[in-house]
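2 proteins. here.
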Amino acid sequence: MKRQKYQYGDHPSQWGELFLPETPPASSSRNGRRPATRGVVVVIHGGYWRSQYGAELGEPLAKDLAAHGMAAWNLEYRRAGNGGGWPHTFEDVLAGIDRLRGVAEEHGLDLARVVALGHSAGGHLAVWAAGRDRLAGLGTPDADRQVERNLNGEAVHLTGVVSQSGLLNLAQADWLDLSNGAVSNLMGGSSGKYPKRHKYADPMSAVPLDVPVYAVHGLEDSTVPMSQSEAYAAAARAAGAPVQVVKVPGDHFALIDPKASSYRKCRELVQELLAT
């Protein structure tokens, strides 16, 4: 397995690490060239957007994906408490995904399929990023730069998402005061004070997406309620979007345990989306 780290900005938390699967010897490849790896999986870690939780949470998943023949991009980003929160966390996620354009050229990766695998707060960011174009009219942070990326062909658009107990209904998460005010902490204040930014950050605002989303949720999850996945899926299906809730055994962290059946189901769904 090969791994290589890349910066996409000057801040210490603006980086991604690429994990590549083992490839057959050049002699067994057509024309002696390294075969292109089909698609890339963007791994986005959780931790309620707080700085004490980092990309080390996503590393075991990225390693496992690479061991199963997939290129994985373990994405770090600024979180609330280390320069992140509104709007920088959101800017970083888009910039970090777009950094794949240059990385893919260097390693001969195929970006026709780019699937995000996001856990908890990372599930929120993954589904949110898949709706980047639909959210443009709501006051996009870094809007001019996003337009420039699209015009220059630099933007990398997600073609599918596997959310692992994701926070997909931000307004509900805020109302429930999940993790002691984590949403307000991310957004720099309450929805009453900043309604526009809260709306922009909520994946519910981009329904329906035109890419498939699997909302996987642990049946014993006491950290993020099942209603987060169910509410999003219900709204998406009502609008005609291809969203499915997949209920699996285990708690919140079984979904990021490579030895757990719940995680293996997530991996299978990622493989399915890459093959579509």
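next one coming up
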Amino acid sequence: MSRPYDWYPLASTDPVPGDPDVVHSVGIAYREVAQAILDARANLLAIADMDGMTSEAVEEIGTKAKEIAEEISKVRTRYQETGDALIEYQVALRGAQADADDALVRARAAHEASETQRRTQAIYLEQDPSSAPHAQMRADEAEYAAQVAEGRLATAASDLADAVRRGGRGGGGGGGRARRRAPRRRSARSSPRTGSRTGGGRTGART
């Protein structure tokens, strides 16, 4: 499955690159080499343990076979550990990429919702309050909706950062997504019934 190319509004490039299938295949290849070395070691030990060795030449072959078996055992351990690590990493990478993709989908939806509500707010604020008594109330509602969307965008960005950390360390620690908090309503203005202004500017995380 191909990775998303455009990561706006979360990142400029793919934050969790890599091909889990390739990593998996390389891990399998390393494990196969480790198994081949194990088989070769068994054959060498079989040669070293042959009964009826009477000549010095045959005895020397047996000694060399044991020495080589010991040496390739060390190499076999490295191949096995590398293969196991790659197999484990591809699982973590695959999961991190899935989480990152999900965060991107949610971030795009939140960003679009935020932009829409900001435009709606601007339209209502431009209206004459005397001719449109509910304009301020509608603007406040749009402000709150924009803050909710921006909160969701911030959550998606946080989830993406978590996915990048999980993919980078090759482990699945922590299991599951971070607990989400519902954004708290913080109106930039007082009750739309009075139309008075009491608060500061816009809030909400933007990325």
